[in-house]
């Protein structure tokens, strides 16, 4: 562990001890804190996700860039600061070197969190939804760096699929081209974040944490680089009304187009609009799916060590 730590990369003592003593560790991201929810819902979500991981018997490691240090295992105070600051930029892979060199803070995306997790030796990471190929990408080329990261970095990402603000068909095509296994957890369909189905089939399905862990081990034994997407549908009881969500998504997309919102700002803008339009219903769903993913990630991480 000490060999990878330096002035730009740190692993919190609690996380280091867990890794060294063979306790399962689950990485959690921080763009979800800085850009995924308003305050204080973001704080509640970050704390509860960590609590759920602990409840399962694993150790949480929330990742972020703190004063230029890519940090695996934010403290409670750091999480509170990330939640309340309001001006911490989103940090994807491409942003890491400059934030580090300048000693700045950054909320890490799925891509940047995978970079940190892999470097620390963490196998499993839980989030809400992954980035993907945006609608209209044939014009804008807006394809999340999360997908390229999944192609190269060996971390399993447990998510509720991806939001249908994205083009889910093209997202799955990209992942296929990049050689990234996508497995449905207890489903044959790729979930669409707020909704359990999307109409797009996944290439494979697993029904237990042990099955997911076996696939991860087999991929490694074959020397295949890159991650695995475990797509865990939102629990039935927390899934909001589909019509409400689809109206909100279409309206958010139309507003983004009118206002010319593009690039890194696109995802945070769309999330905020959807939360506002659904009057908080999507926010409750969003939190619950994150907790379900944290729980499943902990179980997979523990199965990997068994
Ligand atoms: N999707 C969500 N909530 C989120 C994100 C995506 O439903 O908070 C965040 C994640 O951190 C993801 C990032 O990695 O947005 C993708 O941003 P971009 O499309 O700019 O790569
Ligand atoms: Mn983008």
Q: Name the hetero compounds present.
A: pseudouridine-5'-monophosphate, manganese (II) ion
Q: What is the spatial order of strands in the main beta sheet?
A: 1-4-3-2-7-8-11-9-10
- CATH-defined architecture of the largest domain: 3-Layer(aba) Sandwich
Element string (H = helix, E = strand): EHEHHEEHEHEHEHHEHEEHEHHH
CATH topology category name of the largest domain: Indigoidine synthase fold
Total number of domains: 2
Q: Summarize the biggest pleated sheet.
A: 9 strands, mixed
Low-confidence stretches: none
Number of helices: 13
Shape: globular
What Rg, in angstroms, do the CA atoms define? 18 Å
Structural class: alpha/beta
Distinctive features:
306 residues; alpha/beta; Indigoidine synthase fold; 2 domains; nine-stranded mixed β-sheet; two-stranded parallel ribbon; 13 helices; globular; binds pseudouridine-5'-monophosphate; binds manganese (II) ion
Could you provide a short overview of the structure?
The protein is of the alpha/beta class.
Can you characterise this structure?
It is a single chain. With 306 residues, this protein is of the alpha/beta class. The chain folds into 2 domains: 1-122, Indigoidine synthase domain (Indigoidine synthase fold), CATH 3.40.1790.10; 126-306, Indigoidine synthase domain (Indigoidine synthase fold, 3-Layer(aba) Sandwich). It has 13 helices and 11 strands. The chain has a 9-stranded mixed beta sheet with strand order 1-4-3-2-7-8-11-9-10, sandwiched between helices. A two-stranded parallel ribbon has the order 5-6. A hairpin with a 2-residue loop joins strand 3 (59-66) and strand 4. Helix 11 crosses helix 12. It is globular, with a radius of gyration of 18 Å. The model has no long low-confidence stretch (mean pLDDT 96).
């Amino acid at each position: 562990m000490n060999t990878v730590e330096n002035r730009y990369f740190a692993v919190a003592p609690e996380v280091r001890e867990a890794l060294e003593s063979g306790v399962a560790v689950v990485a959690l991201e921080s763009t979800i804190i800085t850009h995924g929810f308003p305050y204080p819902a973001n704080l509640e979500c970050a704390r509860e996700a960590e609590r759920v991981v602990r409840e399962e018997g694993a150790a949480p490691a929330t990742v972020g860039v703190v004063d230029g240090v890519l940090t695996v295992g934010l403290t409670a105070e750091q999480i509170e600061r990330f939640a309340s600051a309001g001006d911490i930029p989103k940090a994807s892979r491409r942003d890491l070197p400059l934030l580090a060199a300048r000693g700045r803070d950054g909320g890490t995306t799925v891509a940047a969190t995978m970079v940190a997790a892999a470097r620390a030796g963490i196998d499993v990471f839980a989030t809400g939804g992954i980035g993907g190929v945006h609608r209209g990408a044939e014009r804008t080329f807006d394809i999340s760096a999360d997908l390229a990261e999944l192609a190269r970095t060996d971390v399993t990402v447990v998510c509720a699929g991806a939001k249908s603000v994205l083009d889910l068909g093209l997202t799955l095509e990209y992942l296929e081209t990049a050689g990234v296994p996508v497995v449905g957890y207890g489903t044959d369909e790729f979930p669409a974040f707020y909704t359990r189905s999307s109409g797009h089939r996944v290439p494979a399905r697993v029904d237990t944490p042990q099955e997911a862990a076996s696939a991860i081990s087999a991929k490694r034994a074959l020397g295949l680089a890159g991650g695995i997407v475990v797509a865990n549908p939102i629990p039935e009881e927390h899934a909001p009304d589909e019509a409400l969500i689809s109206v909100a998504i279409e309206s958010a997309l139309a507003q983004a187009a009118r206002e010319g919102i593009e690039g890194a700002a696109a995802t945070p803008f769309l999330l905020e609009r959807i939360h506002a339009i659904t009057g908080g219903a999507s926010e409750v769903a969003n939190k619950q799916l994150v907790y379900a993913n944290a729980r499943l990630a902990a179980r997979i991480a523990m199965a990997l060590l068994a």
